[in-house]
Design brief:
Number of helices: 4
Shape: elongated
Distance between the termini: 49 Å
Mean pLDDT: 83
Strand order of the largest sheet: 9-10-8-11-12
Strand content: 35-45%
Structural class: alpha+beta
């Protein structure tokens, strides 16, 4: 197990980019994918894509971020990649439904963001478990449910079957959707 007690710097910092580039050519740059929820943690264990177990224990004034260099020496480097965050996209059918949906999201302490009239709920578990909490609204078609992946500001839409949910399948490519598109 490799111990990490500080962030060396950012992979885009000119002080490190040359060394990282050379290590990449030798296949000596490993990545560790950290979930969005875990990026704010100071202490965690993680396994790199190359299979190296890391014990991360950062000081209070340091945080993990996408592109953080955790290990950098003549033989290897380890760089953090932020995992793609998944969101439950909830599209209310009316203003009254939006108010009720907001009430439930607040009471359930869901982490949310807004996209026009849609509510995006950060998924920290199975989408079905979230949809079950608002099942009467979903089954009565007062709220349309889908899952989107947030990939560096690109949003990809993926419809899923939930009880009472009507949808259609088609490829959206790499572009952003607003709620008014559907």
């Amino acid at each position: 197990m490799q111990k990490v007690d500080h962030v060396i710097g950012s992979r885009i910092d000119t002080a490190f980019s040359g060394r990282l580039h050379d290590l990449e050519h030798r296949g000596a740059v490993d990545t560790v994918v950290i979930s969005s929820a875990d990026l704010s943690r100071r202490r965690l264990r993680a396994i790199t894509r190359g299979g190296v177990e890391l014990a991360i224990a950062l000081p209070r004034d340091e945080k993990l971020y996408d592109g953080a260099v955790l290990v950098l020496n003549d033989d290897q480097a380890v760089v953090v990649r932020a995992a793609t965050e998944r969101w439950l996209r909830l599209e209310p059918a009316s203003t009254a439904d939006a108010v009720e949906l907001g009430y439930h999201a607040g009471n359930l302490h869901w982490r949310v963001r807004f996209d026009g009239p849609c509510l995006l709920v950060a998924l920290e578990g199975r989408p079905e478990d979230y949809a079950a909490r608002i099942e009467p609204m979903v089954s009565s078609r007062r709220v349309h449910v889908s899952v989107v992946d947030d990939d560096h500001a690109d949003v990809h839409r993926h419809d899923h079957d939930y009880p009472g949910d009507h949808h259609h399948h088609h490829d959206h490519g790499r572009h952003r959707h607003s709620c008014s598109d559907h």
